[in-house]
Every structure is written in C-alpha cells, then in structure tokens.
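Worked problem 6 (solution included).
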Amino acid sequence: MLAAYYDRQGTAGDVLVVGELADPEPGFGEVRVRVAISGVNPTDIKARTGFAGAPMAFPRIVPHHDGAGTIDKIGPGVPEARLGERVWLYRAQYGRPYGTAAEFVVLPSSLAVPLPDNTSFETGACLGVAAITAHRCLFADGDVRGRRVLVQGGGGAVGTASILLAKWAGAWVAATVSRPEQEKVALDAGADLIINRHSEHVAAAIRNATGDAGVDRIVDVDLANNVDVDIACLAPGGVVTAYATEDPTAKLTMPFRTAMFGSYVFRFVFFTTIPDAAFQLAVKEVTACVAAGRYRPHIGLEVPMQHIAQAHAAQESGKIVGKILVRVGD
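Solution. The predicted structure is:
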C-alpha cells in the first residue's frame, strides 16, 4: 500500500516519506478500511516533532488518528455485514504505529463508525479529535439546551466543532476570533455573537448581550491567558473547560475568592483520557448531529498524500483557518 510515514522526529519536510508499505491484515475484532480522506490534527504535529520531549512511540509511524473510508476486509469476530460500510474513524493511531495516512488502516471495529449516507468522506475525516473533544467540553456537565455558551477560539477546529454541536443542541453561542477569516467561519457555523478579542472588550460584549447574566459554559483554547476574562464572563455556577495549551510549562493562576464566591467549575479535557462512556456518548451524538445535516465543518486545505508535508507544515503554522485534510484515495 502507499503510505506516508516517518522513522525519526523532525520537521515535516525532513522526515515525512511517502512510499510503499506492506498491506495490513485485520486481526480478531478488527476491520481494515480503505482510506479516502485522512484528517490532520495538532496532536499529529506534536508526535512528529517530539512536543515537550515526548519520544517516538514506535520505530516507524504512519500518522493521523482521524479519517474516513470504506471497510474492505474484516477479521474474525466482526459481522460480515460490515463489509463495504462507509465509516468515519477516530483514535486510529492511538496505541498503534499505523494511522490513517495510508491506503489501508487496520483498527478495532468499534473505532470505525458508520457514516451517514448524506455525509461526505471529507466531513467524516473532520470529526474524530475535534468533534469528540468539543462534545466532552460542552456536555461533561449536562445538557446545554437553553444555556449560554462562549467559545474562546471560535475559528479553530475544536472551536468550530463546539459552535456546531452547541447550536445543534439548542444553546445560544458567542465566539471569540482574532481575524476576519475566522469570523466568517464562526458565523457560518451558527454563532449568535462574534467578538474580535483584539479590538473588542470580550467581557463587556458578553455582559451586554446577555443582559449582564453572563454565560453558563465556556470552551477555552488558552485558559492560562484567558482565565480573568472567562471569570468576568461567567454566570454563577458557570463552567470553564480547557482543552489545549501550546506551552508545556504554562501555569494557571486565578482569583480564589472570586472563583469560590461564583461557585465556578474549571474542567480540563485531554482527548486520550476522556472516559470510555463519554467517548461512546460523543460518538453517538456527533453521528446524530452529522445525520441531521447540522455538522458543516470548514475545510481550509486539502492536499493529495504526496503533499502531506505541506499539510503538516500548514497545520503547524496556524495560518490555515479550518480543517486540513489529506486525500488518500477516491
């Protein structure tokens, strides 16, 4: 099979190779998927570059956790009815050396989720890390129907997913952005209020829009820097959920009495440690949102697999607004 892989950590242009590898074979409880589209995430970049000193998990890695395609072979214990099924994939490379940046990927049957008939492989490859993380951030503390939600970083992949899922679930949603192209993406996702964090006072805009009530939930891409703004935006008993940091040494400082008097909750979400029951709920509800035609991700860049280094460099640069995809097959 044709695959992209690396045998050492480093820059995309230096270490990513596109070449032939042996076709994988599914074992017990596994399926083999002919990959159509592979999705790139920041975690793929961190693994390739050795973020925070993390070593290579395997001698050779085919990257990417997310993707979409068609089941073309099944292992023992998997119903024959799964053959030919269109699926979206998540955690494809978790605990395994080979992910979705290849013509074929083998993974446990449960990680290949039926893709609704009305959904493209491109949309399917945009789910995975972004949608499941967003779901956990939004719903770990209960339903958001009728609630007010602020998404800090509404132009990013998880931010956009949070807007899409929150609107599908019946919430009022505000989102912060930093540049005009992000504003358009957040608006297209359905945000009710867009706030440019560079030119507007975020807390004042939230207080004005909510009649000084504040928001019930905040999904935050950079809590270490946003904590004071978040607290100023929260309604009593509000929840802030943080899911990312680009600084492995970042420390979080907050005004204790203010947080205590407001009965605020601060939650942290890391994709690989989301509880299994929450994973299953996220997969079910993300798929329902997709089937309803309500999940419309913005795709910022799509390249053929021969140009995977370009996709990784684009993800690393932070300049592309929207999901970055690698086309593997037809």
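Discussion: The mean pLDDT is 97.
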